[in-house]
Amino acid sequence: MSKIAVLGATGSLGKHVVQQAVAAGHEVSALVRAPSRLPAELRARISVLQFDLAKASLDALSAALRGHDAVINTAGLVTEGEAFVGLVDRLVASLEAIAPGERPVCWFMAGAGLLDIDKSGRRGVDLPKVSSTYWPHRVNFGRIQSTQLDWRILCPGPMVEEPAIGIDRLRVATDELPVHLPAIVQALPGPLVLPFFAYRVPEMIIPYADAAALMLANLDAGGAMSRHRIGLALPLGMRGKKSEWAARAKDAA
After folding, report:
1. DSSP letters for 103-159
2. What pTM was computed for the model?
3. Domain hosting residue 187, numbered range
């Protein structure tokens, strides 16, 4: 079993990470701004550290994370723009301050737009409309990629509060979209690629429970997912639903 620190443990994804980690017998530390938001029965089974990630000193954050086998960051929202970039930068810096031999395995979160969509290395975040909202994922990736940390970035589509499908049934891809786009996409300019990308997004709408399970199943130092972006998609033939993406797909078409 591992000693795991979870940031953003009271959020939609973070609570699944904590619950599954506890159920699996891991030793869990939750770094949260408001401990009272954690269920009382869960607080009794984990170590709770009250932290405001935007205000705590880097030394304090490094000290809190030191001694863990893994750190899973589910804190922050891409829609917060510069604040989200600053949060990830502070977290990375605090991890870099830990001696190399003591650094934990690190999971970060992004979105499907950070994955390669063709062999040229073009990504969803390079497309119009997608870039205007999801550009922080590109900046964060550059920061994370520049480190010597044992990092992995989970890049699902929108996530939903639905029963788990099971990670053994999901399509999992490394550094590229887990869904198929036609070969012609490589020759098209960004505005014409956008409808193809948007049409495939519902295939990448996955339950929070599955996102949590995949990260917890891949905590080994230097494992196959080390220093890679990981994409997830539903089984072939399945499409999820989330209202804002349905609207965007219609606008892009």
Report:
1. PPEEEEE--GGGSB-STT--BGGGSTTHHHHHHHHHHHHHHHHTS-S-EEEEE-SSE
2. 0.93
3. 3-252
